[in-house]
Amino acid sequence: MKLKTFLPWSTAAVALLALSGCDKDDAPPQATACGEPLYAGGATDEAWRTMEDAKNQPQDSSRAVTLTSPEPGQSYFTDQAAPLWRWTSPLRASLEHPVPPMREARPRESKRSVLAWLGNQVLPTAEAHLPPYTGDLYWVKVYAAGRECPIAQVLTSELQWQLDGGSWQTVKDAAGKELSVQVVSAYLVQNRITEGPYTMGSTVPFTMGMAR
Fold first, then answer.
1. CB contact at 8 A, 155 and 39
2. In which order are the strands placed within the sheet that holds 84-88?
3. Whole-prediction pTM
4. I want to staple 180 with a disulfide (CB 3.0 to 4.6 A). Which of 34, 43, 194, 203 is the partner?
5. CATH label of the domain that carries residue 134
6. What domain range includes position 170?
7. Which residues pair with 180 in a beta bridge?
8. Residue 132: half-sphere exposure toward Cβ, Cα within 13 Å
9. SS3 of 79, please?
10. Is 76 inside a domain boundary?
11. Phi, psi at 141, each rounded to 5°
12. What confidence score (pLDDT) does residue 102 get?
């Protein structure tokens, strides 16, 4: 009889302990209004959040990229294959980048209760993070007239974007609308911006026509 009463109690206890471990540190990051981009090269979601946090800084185009494809006013058609877009960047041309002194990392003080800690021993939580990113990054955004958010976007460490099928289909679905490309670039050290962000002085317009 004792076994019958013990099992339900232990199940409830484990559930209670698991719930007690869900403090603010474990809360998932809040979604942004326009959503996350695709990732290419060495880009990570944590590096993107750094770029996202800096998007309201005064616009600086002093070391922005030069988009070589698409060219201003370039025409595409819905029966064409997805294009390869390219750009050049002063950030990539620089051989040396200033690296600020890094403070010694200290373990974050835990705010969990004893119950939360014990619950994590019973039901361990997954805490997987990619290494902090260091290098130049490029946030490519495709805009359609009348839309506040990009209709397609990618964060990449490369100097090109081979548009994927899903992104290209979204762009083709916007045929007949005014379309443009913007690229925001920055250099990061351990997920912290040390150069930039730099935004092109103006977007590059292009058109999408129906199949010929």
1. yes
2. 66-69, 84-88, 160-162
3. 0.71
4. 203
5. 2.60.40.10
6. 35-96+130-209
7. 143, 205
8. 11
9. coil
10. yes
11. -130, 135
12. 41
Average pLDDT, integer, range 77-99: 84
Give the list of residues 6+ apart from residue 177 with CB closer than 8 angstroms, or none.
Answer: 144, 145, 146, 208
Cβ(137)–Cβ(47) under 8 Å?
Answer: yes
162 assigned to some structural domain: yes
Cα–Cα distance measured from residue 104 to residue 100, given in angstroms and rounded to the nearest whole number:
13
Q: Are 160 and 84 within 8 A, CB to CB?
A: yes
H or E element, residue 205? strand 204-209
Give 135-179 pLDDT, tens digit per residue. 999 999 999 998 999 999 999 999 999 999 999 999 999 999 999
Residue type, 71: E
Distance (Å, rounded) from C-alpha 116 to C-alpha 122? Answer: 10
Cis peptide bond upstream of 98, omega within 30: no
Query: For residue 136, what are the β-bridge partners?
Result: 187
Report the C-alpha gap between 102 and 90 in whole angstroms. 25
**Total structural domains within the chain:** 1
